[in-house]
Specification:
Order of helices and strands: EHEHHHHEHEEHEHEHEHEHEEHHHEHHH
Strand content: 5-15%
Largest sheet: 6 strands, parallel
Distance between the termini: 39 Å
Helix content: 40-55%
CATH architecture of the largest domain: 3-Layer(aba) Sandwich
Strand order of the largest sheet: 2-1-3-4-5-6
Structural class: alpha/beta
CATH topology of the largest domain: Rossmann fold
CATH class of the largest domain: Alpha Beta
Shape: globular
Mean pLDDT: 88
Number of strands: 12
Radius of gyration: 22 Å
């Protein structure tokens, strides 16, 4: 049975408008990978079970297919990069896709009308929390008509799920746009102004990390210290979640094959992966590896649930090998928190993942390029990390792995042996990051205040 830490909203405000029977919370998302679904779950887990809510858009198989195709097909990936990195191409794409979404919103109109009109007891206000731009644009286009037809006031909150500026996320007609940093907030603000689009209220809010993973206990740190101590016999537990697009499988498989045959000290690996035709071979080979547990899931929701389950059991993971997707924001947690693992990032795929790396680096959660080069130099020469660099290590929450899987495995073993990981467990967030694990409760506090105004 999966444990769950709920943010007990009514403990803060006993008369919370969120709990009023005439208010309804609706989540809209898209299964383009697992990231948007994970963010939706994290935000939803911040509500008590007694609060009425629905999730729409989580099972769109067309978007799932297109996302994977764009991630693995070399030609389509180049088209994606062109759109992301060439302003003119991005402008053309945004204009056309935005127009397509906003003129093809009949289905979501009738879905929302049905949910709102049939809800008992009758509601006065609907809060829509969108974690993907596609339904957000469609809802923005139909919001006024939907309000008139149902007589219900609607507020649309859009959550940007990476620390990135991409113009398709600029949803005019939304009431609020939430972003993780001031830098990105300024970029969206300039975009709305320069394109003469109605500007929503843009809110800088800490990234919504799962309240369950933010749970804090000293035993989590104690367990991780034993796992990462090179002189301890306790195996090092690694979790490897496979992305929804299932990219980099050969790279990950090679790393794991090298790690689990390491004789210096055992590595124990848990893989969380959705069953699909393109993951069959990976899962088959992984199941035959020693010290590897594979959790193969049938749905996106089950995949996300089983990932959390890994952190509900003992031994708790101390390392995670993953893409710098929205998963990267768990680096905002400390090793004393349930989800406060040390991240080992693979090469970024897409501009949003590059931007997430930049976010972590400027907040000192990842080494700078100079610091990384220094560490890799020590690794290449098989020498100890100097004291001066080790002092900087204590500020890091993750590392970027070498592009060669063989070297990446050796690098992981080196960092454990030379106590780089042990030093990273001494991490304490700086003043600027003190409340960065409070993204979910702060978001709901903001929503609550807006509801109180209605």
């Amino acid at each position: 049975m999966l444990h769950s830490l709920k943010f007990r909203y009514n403990e803060i405000m006993p008369e919370s408008p969120l709990a009023y029977s005439d208010n309804l919370i609706i989540f809209t998302t898209a299964p383009t990978g697992l990231g948007h679904l994970r963010v939706t779950k994290a935000i939803k887990d911040g509500l008590p079970d007694s609060i009425h809510s629905f999730i729409l858009g989580a099972t769109d198989k067309t978007l799932t297919y297109l996302h994977r195709l764009g991630s693995i097909n070399p030609v389509l990936r180049q088209v994606q990069y062109l759109v992301q990195y060439q302003p003119f191409a991005e402008h053309i794409f945004t204009a056309n896709y935005r127009n397509y979404l906003r003129t093809n919103a009949e289905e979501i109109f009738y879905q929302l009308e049905t949910v709102i009109s049939s809800h008992q007891p009758k509601i006065r206000n609907a809060v829509i929390v969108a974690t993907h731009f596609s339904l957000a644009h469609q809802i923005a286009a139909i919001k006024d008509e939907l309000q008139q037809k149902t007589g219900v006031r609607i507020k649309l909150f859009v959550i940007v799920t990476d620390d990135t500026f991409q113009s398709i996320w600029a949803v005019d007609g939304a009431d609020f746009l939430f972003v993780p940093s001031e830098i990105i907030k300024r970029k969206y603000s300039r975009y709305f102004t320069s394109n003469k689009l109605p500007k929503p209220t843009i809110v800088t809010n800490p990234y919504p990390v799962s309240p369950f993973l933010a749970e804090k206990e000293e035993k989590f740190l104690k367990d991780r210290k034993a796992q990462l101590d090179p002189n301890s016999t306790v195996p090092t537990h690694i979790v490897t979640p496979i992305s929804g697009a299932a990219v980099q499988l050969e790279y990950l498989q090679s790393i794991l094959q090298n790690l689990v045959t390491d004789t210096s000290k055992p590595f124990s690996v848990t893989i969380v992966c959705k069953k699909a035709p393109f993951t069959t071979s990976f899962l088959h080979i992984s199941k035959m590896l020693p010290h590897v547990t594979t959790l193969s899931c049938t749905t996106n929701e089950e995949t996300i649930r089983w990932y959390d389950e890994v952190f509900a059991k003992t031994p708790i993971p101390s390392l995670e090998i993953t893409k710098p997707s929205e998963q990267a924001f768990k680096a905002l947690l400390s090793p004393r928190q349930r989800g406060g693992i040390i991240f080992l990032f693979t090469d970024p795929v897409g501009r949003q993942e590059v931007d997430n790396i930049k976010f972590l680096t400027r907040n000192h959660l990842l080494p700078t390029s100079t610091e990384r080069s220094h560490l890799l130099s020590c690794f290449s020469s098989n020498t100890s990390v100097p004291v001066r660099l080790m002092k900087k290590v204590r500020k890091w929450r993750g590392l970027i792995l070498p592009s060669s899987p063989h070297q990446a495995a050796k690098f992981i073993t080196y960092c454990r042996r030379e106590q780089v990981f042990s030093a990273m467990l001494a991490y304490e967030p700086g003043k600027a990051l003190k409340n960065y694990d409070q993204g979910v409760p702060l978001l709901w506090q903001f929503v609550e205040k807006e509801l109180a105004k209605l």
